[in-house]
Specification:
single chain; 114 residues; mainly beta; 7-stranded mixed beta sheet; globular
């Protein structure tokens, strides 16, 4: 059973930074896209960012210029550097990968509050 394991969430003040990490338990995502989604209470899960196997990124408009996605293909890992965090970024963040079907991590809570 392939697993995606996230880490790095937590509580941060507005304007602060966090870095999320996600590692796959098997090397099945090296040739495909991986990324991040998030879900706030009462809202649908939404796209945050993804990066293709050739390291082309894409971002939601709401995070463009503040978040940076990166990958270490050899380590089967994807990262999300989140800067200038806002209270509206508060959500559970999910790592995602697609290989014939979608795989999801268990989620990591990010809370932006003073």
């Amino acid at each position: 059973q392939v697993q995606l394991v996230e880490s790095g969430g937590g509580l941060v003040q507005p304007g602060g930074s966090l870095r999320l990490s996600c590692k796959a338990s098997e090397s099945i995502f090296r040739d495909v896209t991986m990324g991040w989604y998030r879900q706030s209470p009462g809202k649908r899960r939404e796209f945050v960012a993804h990066m293709t196997a050739v390291l082309t990124p894409a971002y939601a408009d709401s995070v463009k210029g503040r978040f940076t996605i990166s990958r270490d293909i050899a380590k089967d890992s994807v990262y999300l550097q989140m800067d200038s965090l806002k209270p509206e970024d508060t959500a559970v963040y999910y790592c995602w990968g697609y290989n014939y079907r979608a795989y999801w991590g268990q989620g990591t809570q990010v809370t932006v509050s003073s």
